Structures are given as structure tokens and as C-alpha cells.
Amino acid sequence: MEFLTSPEFWVALGQIIIIDILLGGDNAVVIALACRKLPPAQRAKGIIWGTAGAIVLRVVLILFAMTLLNLPFLKFIGALLLVWIGVKLIAPDEDDHDGIEGSDKLFAAIKTIIVADLVMSVDNVIAIAGAAQNSGEHSTLLVVLGLLISIPIIVAGSQLVIKLMARFPFIIVAGGMLLGWIAGGMLVTDPVFANPGEWLWMAKIPQSSAVKYGAAIAGALLVLAIGKVLANRQVSTDPA
């Protein structure tokens, strides 16, 4: 239980919760749409069981992704995807949930929630795997705790979270920069850059704390810069 006194554990847990809340808003919309035609007596069951199934599936996917991150170049690719996800947080496209069909059958609604969550959770999986990757034997606990804490917040308080993000846009910008921070640290620890005894044809990056923090800061600033440029471009091209 000594890990409970480790600042790194709580920082990683906080990152996972923030990522889940920022990237999980659509999941609350999916749950509402999928269960909207259920009888009132079954609606709560649909939400609970659909959410539980989605959580279990996402934990499995995240643990699988964390294993894959040990392969060469996958951290590099994951870092690029995280940068793009962070940019889209700051400069989002219009979302469309018309494809989510409600059902008046309980099991059909549960299936819709789980399948839709699977399709929409690629960004969450990559981001959480990146945040938990350096936690060693406690990474599974971090992932499970993060989901158990954040999913009820998303489901029960999605409207409050959405209102807070609308009122305080810096929350979304900070979230995008957090993903860039994780991406920078992930990229420089890719085995092809970090392992001096293998892949000798690739340039090696020192694995010092200064290099990792510098890369994390660079990733956060890169997401901020690209996101702001795209957001300003969207404003300038919108019809008056």
C-alpha cells in the first residue's frame, strides 16, 4: 500500500479522471439517446447495465493498449494521435449523434450503449493508456479507479460538466494541453528512441527527467498553438 503515498500515483489518477470527463461527454449523450424509448421502469436498468458493460470493455481495451505501447513506434503513433485529439478539443468539429437509435427493448438499448461506447472510445483508450503507462504494477488499479470515479460523474453530472466547460473555456484548453503533455512524454519514451541497444539506425533520446519534462511542455504548447490556429480559422470562415 506504499504506492498510496506516492505523488506520481495521485497525479496519474487525476490525469485519467480529467481525460475521462473531458473526452466522455459524448458517452453521456449516447446513453441518453439509446435509453430514451425504454419504459421508465427499465430506463435505469438500461443506463446501469449499459454503462457497466462499457466500463468493463474499456478497461480490457486500455490494458491491451498499454501492452501494445511497449512495441516499437506505437508510442510515437499514439503521441501523434493524442496531439490530434487535444487539438480537436480546442478546435472541435460539429458532432452529430443522429446515428444513435433508441430502442424500446432493454437488451437492445444496452447493446447500443456498449457498441457505441466502443466505437467512440478510441481517444479515451489512447489517452488513458498514455497516462497510466509508467505506473508499473499499479497501472491496472489506476485505470479501474479512474473509470469508476469518472463514469458516474459523466452519467450523473454531464449537464453540469457541459455547462462548466461552456462557461469556462479554459477548462477545455487545459484539457487539450494535458493530452499534448502526455503525448510529448510518451513520444520520447518510445523503445526505438529510448533503447540504446536496439534499433541502432534510429537517433537515441536521453531518458533524463529534463528531456521528458521538456518534451511534455513542448507537446502541450504544440497542441495549444495548432488548436488556436484552427479555431481562429474556423471563426474567420464561418458565415456572418
Automatic annotation (TrEMBL):
Keywords, alphabetical: Membrane, Transmembrane, Transmembrane helix
Transmembrane segments: 12-35, 47-67, 138-156, 168-193, 213-231
Membrane topology type: Multi-pass membrane protein
Chief localization: membrane
Subcellular location: Membrane
Domain of life: Bacteria
CC terms in the record's Gene Ontology section: membrane
A Pfam family hit: TerC
Family: Belongs to the TerC family.
The name this protein goes by in its record: Tellurium resistance protein TerC
Lineage: Bacteria, Pseudomonadati, Pseudomonadota, Betaproteobacteria, Burkholderiales
